[in-house]
Design brief:
The chain contains ten helices and five strands; from the N terminus they run H-H-H-H-H-E-E-E-E-E-H-H-H-H-H. By secondary structure, the protein is an alpha+beta fold. It folds into two domains: about 280 residues, no CATH class; about 80 residues, no CATH class. It has a five-stranded antiparallel sheet. About 30% of the residues are buried.
Length: about 400
């Protein structure tokens, strides 16, 4: 009896040790892939706008929690696929079955690891994501205060300032001087103004949390209710724009904590309430996807025994894409009000959990999966076509 328990503990420890290495590789790979979309913009801020490299690194750190919310389940899926694919490819799963250990008996190690991943993902969604998003917002305001040109791009209608639209035909590399300036100012709804200037300069005032536009050779066009239309030409004109006032800006949904999301402010419209409840349930549903991906990856990894790590990686990408397509579709249904926020957020997990149960049962009874039979045929067909094309 003692010997059997010792052997089972040894087996569980052996399986558990197979999971962390590919999990870490998946975390680094998937996080890097998500960051790639931001790298060009961050590089532009350093090279063209003169933003300090230290601030850019801080931006990346603040962005990481919102990426980890997705990369932790993704990396877990890849890790389980590769771990059980390796065990199956080396016939170790067959040896375990011959010793009387079923697929259900192999569940404890991956479930234990998925529990750790779920707790980590839950910590990220409860604490790290709101902190990262709010810190990123504050840092962007600080950068805008110290580097005026960061908020304006050439040949683009910029609406970075509330109530204003700014256009510049050209900007120098540091974003301090402009040519062909158009500013439409609607900060006072009763008296809007449009300013045209041949050239201008941007100066930041960090202490006053403001930016000044020093404009030259232009005209101001004003229209006010009851006062008609007026035009004033100028040689020099200074326009001061406050970047932030002392009143705290309303937090976005992504910056709110779970307790704030559960209690929408009084007077909030139905759309705002629905958006907050969707965010609340989504933050809880995503960590639970760790368990769903574990149950789904085990049978897929065992059936994918001969295709190697490249195939395991591509299969994990395919599953992830399907999951997040379903997540996006149900989220849209929730936003439109066709589904309750709870159902819209948890439906993808329920669908994939049903699929995982079916695949798990088929694999446990040693029945081939339709996917496992289809994949070799597609691979052989594509290889034959490439071979014929090469001979021609």
């Amino acid at each position: 009896m003692y010997h059997a328990k010792f052997m089972k503990k040894t087996l569980y420890a052996y399986i558990f040790k197979e999971i962390p290495p590919p999990f870490l590789v998946g975390m680094v790979t998937f996080t890097f892939m998500l960051l790639m979309g931001r790298f060009l913009k961050l590089a532009e801020m350093v090279v063209e706008k003169g933003v300090p490299l230290g601030d850019v690194i801080r931006m990346v750190l603040y962005l990481l929690p919102s990426f980890w919310l997705y990369t932790i389940p993704m990396a877990l899926l890849l890790a389980i696929l590769l771990a059980f694919g390796r065990l199956s490819g080396d016939s170790e799963v067959t040896a375990m079955k011959s010793c009387g250990i079923s697929l259900y008996g192999l569940l404890p190690p991956p479930l234990a690891f998925s529990l750790l991943a779920c707790l980590g993902c839950l910590w990220v969604t409860v604490y790290a994501v709101p902190w990262g998003n709010s810190s990123f917002k504050k840092l962007m305001v600080e950068i805008a205060q110290s580097s005026a040109g960061i908020v304006v791009k050439e040949k683009v209608f910029n609406n970075a300032f509330p109530g204003m639209v700014i256009y510049a035909e050209s900007l120098d590399q540091k974003g301090q001087t402009m040519e062909g300036v158009i500013i439409h100012d609607e900060r006072d709804p009763n008296q809007s103004a449009t300013i045209f200037a041949r050239s201008g300069a941007l100066l930041a005032d960090p202490r006053a949390r403001a930016i000044e536009f020093h404009l030259q050779d232009g005209s101001i066009h004003r229209s006010a209710e009851g006062a008609g239309y007026r035009m004033v030409d100028f040689q020099e004109y200074n326009l001061r724009v406050a970047l932030a006032d002392n009143r705290p800006a309303p937090a976005k949904v992504s910056e709110m904590t779970l307790s704030e999301l559960r209690r929408p402010p009084r007077g909030s419209d139905a759309k705002k309430v629905r958006s907050m409840l969707l965010e609340f349930h989504s933050r809880l549903a995503l960590p639970f996807s760790c368990f769903v991906f574990t149950l789904l990856a085990m049978p897929l990894g065992i059936q994918n025994r001969r295709s190697g790590k490249a195939s395991g990686f591509s299969l994990s990408i395919a599953v992830i894409l399907l999951y997040y397509v379903a997540l996006s579709a149900f989220d849209t249904l929730g936003e439109k009000g066709f589904l309750a926020p709870f159902l819209a957020s948890w439906a993808p997990n329920l669908l994939f959990l049903t699929l995982a149960g079916y695949l798990f049962k088929k694999t446990a009874s040693e029945q081939p999966l339709p996917l496992a039979e289809l994949y070799p045929r597609l691979a052989a067909s594509l290889a034959a076509r490439f071979k014929r094309g090469g001979q021609r």
